[in-house]
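Researcher: Here's my situation. A collaborator sent me these components and asked whether they could plausibly form a single complex. I don't have experimental data yet, so a predicted model of the whole assembly would be a useful starting point for our discussion.
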Amino acid sequence: MDKTAAHIECDGVTKSYLQKGKVVPVLDGLSFGVRERELLVVLGPGQSGKTTLLRLMAGLERPESGCIRMHGTPVTGPSNDKGLVFQSYMLFPWLTVLGNVEIGLDIQGRQTGANRGQVREKARAYLDMVGLSGFENYYPHQLSGGMKQRVGIARAYALEPQVMLLDEPFGQLDAQTRLSMEQETERIWQAHKKTMVFVTNNIDEAVFLADRIVILEGKLPGRLAAIRSVPLPRPRDPMDVAFLQLREEITAMQKLAL
Ligand SMILES: Nc1ncnc2c1ncn2[C@@H]1O[C@H](COP(=O)(O)OP(=O)(O)OP(=O)(O)O)[C@@H](O)[C@H]1O
Ligand SMILES: [Mg+2]
């Protein structure tokens, strides 16, 4: 790939964990690049090291060997230029919807000098972006799963990071809500054009969203099985013949990788 256009580079990333005294290799020599403003989907079945990969990209963990670089600089820890949306909702139950978005901005504001009014205004704007205007004073327990995940997305976007990292954000949603959230994700990505790494175990979701799909091998340690471009025009129709053909092709690649 064109190295000059790479926003994120994973270069020979290897990671293992200690479990009950045994070393479990989780990622083995994973190398791929994420282009500037690309929507890259990482596709792999359960327990293939997807969350581990995203945590490494976020700087929450360090690789044992290999390196992850953003614009050529090694990732050594978490920072505001990387927005993370978690697999579980991770909202603070004692804070309102608005409070959950403001909390990150408040912390950021201590560095940037943003005042309360600016923080509130920005939090409201990003809640509006995800369609939650009018729900600012609700608490997480009063929200549906899809709404909770929208709060998580607003919270991550509000910090205006250069990169969005999403870990199976819609895995817990019903099929209908999931589809509308995928459409929403595409809309937001097209409006903001941030580099996005989206992790999923769902082939339809991958084909619907991705510019390119990084397909992981199905068993540990996670290795790269293939990288597949998705040249279909957007918005995509999951019932379209070309969509279904690509879906078949990737299913076959995944079966081969298992
Ligand atoms: N902090 C940790 N300590 C020990 N083992 C871990 C840790 N985090 C992950 N693992 C192990 O690493 C392997 C991969 O886990 P990971 O969560 O990255 O997979 P995943 O593809 O995200 O799975 P899922 O689809 O279920 O979310 C698993 O065997 C898991 O038990
Ligand atoms: Mg996971």
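Model: Some features of this prediction you could bring to your collaborator: Strands lie at 6-19, 22-35, 39-43, 65-70, 73-74, 82-85, 163-167, 195-200, 212-216, 224-229. Residues 1-81+196-258 form a domain with the Rossmann fold fold (CATH 3.40.50.300).
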